[in-house]
Design a protein that fits this description.
The protein is mainly α and 126 residues long. It has 5 helices and no strands. The chain folds into 2 domains: 86 residues, no CATH class; 36 residues.
């Protein structure tokens, strides 16, 4: 996996983590001794532990490999289309959160369509 794709995975993971942690902060108090910097550093270290000696994230799981390939392709598509990667510095945290929320709402819509059409899926022979 290239550094660009690895960076993309970290940004997406951090965005998801920020959304979840902000939601959890509303409902319960986090540990007093734990700062966001501590939490993010823990996530970064957990990802680094997944890398092999060449800086590649290797897995025997073909599904994870396919997801990696799709993410790399999506990254290339986005960079070609928008001429900037996810490492851009021109968006605030709130703008990133809004982007993530908008993407999540799209996903919710797709899932709702599939839920409503679940009976059709029973008839599909894969």
């Amino acid at each position: 996996m290239s550094t660009e794709v690895f960076g993309f995975l970290i940004v997406i993971s951090l965005m998801c983590y920020l959304i979840i942690s902000m939601t959890l902060m509303i409902t319960k108090e986090r540990k007093k001794s734990e700062t966001y910097r501590d939490i993010i550093e823990g996530w970064r270290k957990s990802y680094l532990n997944l890398l092999d000696k060449h800086g590649e994230y290797n897995t025997p799981d073909p599904i994870v490999t396919r997801v990696q390939e799709k993410m790399a392709g999506r990254s290339r598509f986005g960079i070609n289309k928008y001429k900037v990667g996810l490492d851009r510095k021109d968006l605030s945290i709130l703008e990133w959160l809004n982007h993530a929320q908008e993407e999540s709402m799209g996903l919710c819509g797709y899932l709702e369509v599939l839920i409503q059409r679940a009976d059709e899926l029973k008839e599909v022979k894969l």
